[in-house]
Amino acid sequence: QWQFVESGGGSVQPGGSLRLSCTASGSGFNLDYYGIGWFRQAPGKDREDLACISRSSTNAVYADSVKGRFTISRDKNTVYLEMNRLKPEDTARYYCATELKTTCSLGQFRTWGQGTQVTVSS
């Protein structure tokens, strides 16, 4: 069995930055092969898909709410979400996810990890 492992969350002041990382542990999943994305969910709110990057970084898509502030990237073993100019409304649990295809699109994630908490507060 395999699973996503997210890391890099924490507490930051408004205007600050964080970089989240996503890797896959266990056997049976080659992270390098698939499109991978990120979504977040805050208590009492719907899931919000944020960004997605296809295999080989051919294509990346972003939600309007984070476009220009967040950047998704990847190397062979890790997918990153660079988050800049963070706002209190960015506070949520952030999850790494995939639709198990080489391409990637928001709203199509099928499986995800346990998440990492991001708190933006002064």
Number of strands: 11
Can you summarize the main beta sheet? 7 strands, mixed
Using the CA coordinates, give the radius of gyration.
Answer: 13 Å
Give the rounded overall mean pLDDT.
96
Distance between the termini: 40 Å
Question: What is the percent of helical residues?
Answer: under 10%
Structural class: mainly beta
How large is the count of helical segments? 0
Overall 3D shape: globular
Query: Beta-sheet strand percentage?
Result: over 45%
Low-confidence stretches: none
SSE ordering: EEEEEEEEEEE
Key traits:
single chain; 122 residues; four-stranded antiparallel sheet; 47% strand; globular
Offer a concise description of the structure:
This protein is mainly β and 122 residues long. The chain has strands at 2-7, 10-12, 18-26, 36-41, 48-53, 60-62, 70-74, 79-83, 92-98, 111-112, 116-120.
Summarize the structure in words.
It is built from no helices and eleven strands. It is an all-beta fold and 122 residues long. The strands form two sheets. Strands 2, 4, 5, 6, 9, 10 and 11 form a seven-stranded mixed sheet that branches. A four-stranded antiparallel sheet has the order 1-3-8-7, with no helix packed on it. Strand 4 (36-41) and strand 5 (48-53) form a beta hairpin.
